[in-house]
Write a structure and sequence with these properties.
Radius of gyration: 24 Å
Shape: elongated
CATH superfamily of the largest domain: P-loop containing nucleotide triphosphate hydrolases
Number of helices: 14
Helix content: 25-40%
Strand content: 15-25%
């Protein structure tokens, strides 16, 4: 039998299974020998292709690996039953590839979870982890997903986009750039809000790249995603418990450790649950210019969203409001319309109609940034001051001056 006579996927699976049974690493001689043992005769080109396929099947994402490696891919999703969807920057589309149902999807999910040091089985039917190459893994097993195992893979950016690049691409619309630069230079504490896949992490990473080189940034994350272009960054990452549930180190512990590491900017990564308590605590430690991200539909929804998340940690809404008002100056909201991700609003955290809320200061209009009702409050918070080394002279002299040109 020749490779061309059989489905190539079947050849890969047969060779993979043989190597797995024998405990042999997938090097070229071993793959060629396993192929011959399976009755497959290979030319040089087919052998190279088989090497890639077996390597992906044993250590990568199997037949999904080419999709993950394709230029521009941000997400690869597998629904119950094996249907595969891909987002390559223009929104989700159905991929030509389909996996062979639960018999292929579940073993792949279990193997990927094990590669991330996590357990995925009936006793632990979902997992959220980061693979060794930085890919974000999420998987859910039946019966939580009745149609079959669901697998979500988010691909890390190959290169980090700087703030200048976000401006040129339109992700930071005209007029927003100077305002956001001023927010960073003025050491205002901020939250980046938005939905899934809107570019919250990308924007925050670019903003942290604007921090003066003389400042020390300490990042605290559940799963490390932020990689700012900055000379002095310290990464702390939470650790989940082992199979017995022991050895876990949460964000609250890491925030306490971070405070002893002499941070100039303390940043807590994405909050999806009770860890919002730790985010608000971190932003109330007296370290100006802190930051974090949170899921929300609009900037004005951020307080309500924080209330809901904090309730899972037993924190009362009044406490959340007090911490939000004391610890957060600005909310930067990003959204996605069609295939375009961009900053939609900069709001100021303040009391409004007797309640703590986010008042729009700069909003996106047809031609770029426009003033809104909270503009004067943002202007006041960006008054003249003396900032740290490395800040552009015009910003250091008067960050608020950049707001004057906005319509």
């Amino acid at each position: 039998m020749r490779a061309a006579d059989a489905g190539f996927g079947g050849v890969v699976e047969a060779v993979r299974d043989r190597l797995a049974r024998e405990g042999t690493p997938p090097d070229p001689p071993a793959v060629a020998a396993a192929a011959r043992a399976e009755g497959v005769v290979l030319g040089a080109a087919d052998l190279l292709r088989l090497l890639d396929g077996v390597g992906a099947a044993l250590t990568g994402a199997g037949r999904l690996q080419p999709l993950l490696e394709a230029p521009g891919t941000t997400d690869v999703l597998v629904n119950g039953g094996g249907a595969v969807w891909v987002d390559d920057g223009a929104g989700l589309r159905r991929a030509d590839l389909s996996l062979a149902g639960e018999d292929e999807v579940r073993p792949l999910a279990v193997r990927l979870a094990a590669g991330a040091g996590r357990r995925l089985d009936e006793a632990s039917p979902f997992v959220d982890a980061r693979l060794p190459d930085g890919t974000r893994l999420h998987a859910v097993l039946p019966p939580l997903a009745p149609a079959g195992t669901h697998l979500s893979l988010r691909v890390p950016a190959v290169r980090r986009l700087g703030f200048d690049e976000l401006e040129r691409s339109g992700a930071v619309p005209p007029g927003f750039g100077p305002v956001l630069r001023a927010v960073v230079a003025g050491r205002l504490s901020l939250l980046v809000s938005g939905g899934t896949g809107t570019g919250k992490t990308t924007l925050l990473q670019a903003l942290l790249g604007l921090v003066a080189p003389s400042e020390r940034i300490v990042l605290v994350e559940d799963a490390g995603e932020l990689r700012p272009e900055h000379p002095h960054v310290v990464h702390l990452e939470a650790r989940h418990g082992n199979v017995e549930g022991r050895g876990a180190v949460g964000l609250d512990d890491l925030v306490r450790q971070a405070l002893r590491m002499r941070p100039d900017r303390l940043v807590v990564g994405e909050c999806r649950g009770a860890e919002v308590r730790d985010l608000l605590a971190a932003l109330n430690t007296g370290h100006a210019g802190g930051a974090g991200t949170v899921h929300a539909n609009t900037a004005s929804d951020v307080p309500v969203r924080l209330h809901a998340l904090a309730a899972t940690a037993g924190v009362a809404p009044a406490v959340v409001d007090a911490q939000l008002l004391a610890g957060v100056d600005v909310v930067v909201h990003v959204d996605r319309r069609g295939g375009t991700r961009a900053v939609a609003e900069v709001g100021v955290v303040d009391r409004h109609d007797g309640r703590v809320g986010v008042v729009p200061a700069i909003v996106r209009g047809p031609a770029g940034a426009c003033r809104a009702s909270g503009f004067a409050r943002l202007h006041d918070r960006l008054g003249p001051g003396t900032w740290t080394d490395g800040v552009p002279a015009d910003l250091a002299a008067d960050p608020a001056a950049h707001l004057e040109a906005l319509p």
